Amino acid sequence: MQIISQLDLNEHIAQFKSFFSRNDDLFIEGDQELHFRYIKALDKLEFNAPPKVSDFANIKQHLKKHGVLNFEQIFEIVKVVRYFRYFKNRDIEGIIGEWMEKFEFPEQFLEVEKYFTNDGKFEENLDQELFSLSQRVKEQKNNISVSLKRLVSSSKVAPYLMDTQLHFVNNEDCLLVRGGFNHVLKGAVVGRSSSGGFYVSPDSILKAKEQIRYINQEREAIFYRYSQEFSTKLSELQPFINFIDKEFSRFDNYQARVLFAKSQNLQIVKSQKNSNIILKDFIHPALHNAKPVNVDFSKNVLMITGVNAGGKTMLLKSLLSSAFMAKYMIPMKLNENKSSIGNFKKILSIIDDPQNVKNDISTFAGRMQQFSQIFTQRDALVGVDEIELGTDSDEAAALFKVILDELIKKNQKIIVTTHHKRLAALMADRDDVELMAAIYDEDARKPTYEFMHGIIGKSYAFETASRYGIAPHIVKEAKSVYGDNSEKLNLLIERGSQLERELKQKHIKVDEKLEELNKKEQELKALREDLFKELDEQKSALKRSYEAAINEAKSAARAGDTQAIHRAMNKANKNLPKEQKEEIKRDIVFSVGDQVKYHSQSGTIKALKGNKEAIVEVNGMTVRVKTKQLKPTQIIKQKPQSDVKVQVEKKAGLKCDLHGMRADEACETLDKFLSDALMNGWDEVIVYHGIGTGKLSYAVKNFLTAHPRVKSFTDAPPHLGGFGAKIVYL
Fold first, then answer.
1. What is the three-class DSSP state of 717?
2. Is the pTM of this model over 0.85?
3. Tens digit of pLDDT for each residue in 269-290?
4. Looking at the chain, which terminus has fewer C-beta neighbours within 10 angstroms, N or C?
């Protein structure tokens, strides 16, 4: 989860997961109240940690398909059964004892279990044939050892020996000898030493090694028969195996929390059925020798202000971390008797700087993306660090004040750190906003890492700058500049707050108007639906009538009555709706200066060319259009912004041919062409530039890439010009 990294919980969660016997999710599915009761009951007991166990998914899949398990897989099941038997034999009272009483171990499974030692080895002593084969293997290994010792003591071999030890390299018994050994020793080289010697397996032990190989093949055949036998028995016990697998996963979640808490003297708490966060003596896991956090966050918004480097961000992370760990019942350090942590569907954080050069996104734009995602959530706990980051502080105060208001409406609980006094002042008049300020020790000139409720804190920027090495004369001059303008700034903030309150009242009136309009819109929608329903009923009735007449005509046709056929067809045609063609009046006479509408745009006629064409100014641009495409209207005349003349004539297919043009000429022509296309509402056009030397093609690509209204472009298909043309999407 990304939230774990953002809250600096990686190391804590990794330590917690190390106590699991096998990998599992942090969240325990099911009734959290019931899980917490079992965890607390288990916490009162002293017990051994369960063994590391692999997942049963592959094992159960093999058994379901009647496959053959190997001994390692079978022993995984044995380990789980033995651990539960250990717990059951302790005769524990309470809910843990009642839980263990549910485990009944089938006699059929005990017949499998007895063949495995505590470390998973097969008990060969229980099978006479295996025991006999093991003795034969020992005998042959003894023969090998005797043969090698005889070679070591041989006067011929001794000069070539680098030592008198017996080595085991690459699963082979061998001697370490120098070069030239082949004159006195026949054998296979199985390796080289770092000193240049050769590890040689003598031919004299080949017979004994071959005997061991044949014996081991017999042993493997017997082991496979046992695997088949055990797998058959376990296939019949699949419900029992599914049961212990599920119960072990549940127990593993409980014991990991209990043993992790005991190992570091932590407390296990769970989420309460509310949205309050009350922390007493909480310490974030990433901090060492930290001051405990004591905070009562029962309102909707907590605004944390005050000194730089005073612990504001860590307080935010502490609140979010406590909610996260309580949600998943992960042990933490706090006073569990005086703390209470609410339950939240989602825990979201906006902490890191979202600026990303690769994705061409600024800090503020990234922040807006993050907030837009939060608006899709409800009943979430949201933490925002330095909310004004990335934009003008005054604008940010107004914007984030409204954003916070909207998030509160969605029942979000929000923690905010900020240096912006105006934002804090705007939010302070709300009853559901809590203020906290980081405290600064004026005498010691450093933060205390403690917080005070109900006030807006000072940033102590000058003091912090001095503490971190900024030259005294720079800080002194900055204080002087601030003193000259601070009073003006306070007046501006006061006036701005007054305007904000007036604007709030206006917003209330606008909201009332919008509500009335929404009601009317709903009424119109309902009326429209009724009309469409009535129209559908009339269409259905007409269709039934027409089909009846057609069927009558078909019957007459089968009877061969020509006159009856004509009568039926005439009857059917009478039932058809009469086609009504709207007469388009084209007798309107336009004059220069008339206000007209062209498509969805409004404009003014600047010149006329006969009765069929006109030059119209639309949004600061002049275009040539057909007068039949214009409609008279009355608009407020706009100030001309530019004087760009574009001749536009909408055709069935829109294309631009740039063959033979220079690059600058082609770009100018293409620019006018795209303007015409956009004005006419085209979303797809084709541009021909040819192949040639590639210069024109390169210029066209660069132009299209930079054009703000071009969504994308691609090479045309072969039948439309291929690489010599571009399909452009607008």
1. coil
2. no
3. 999 989 999 999 999 999 888 8
4. N
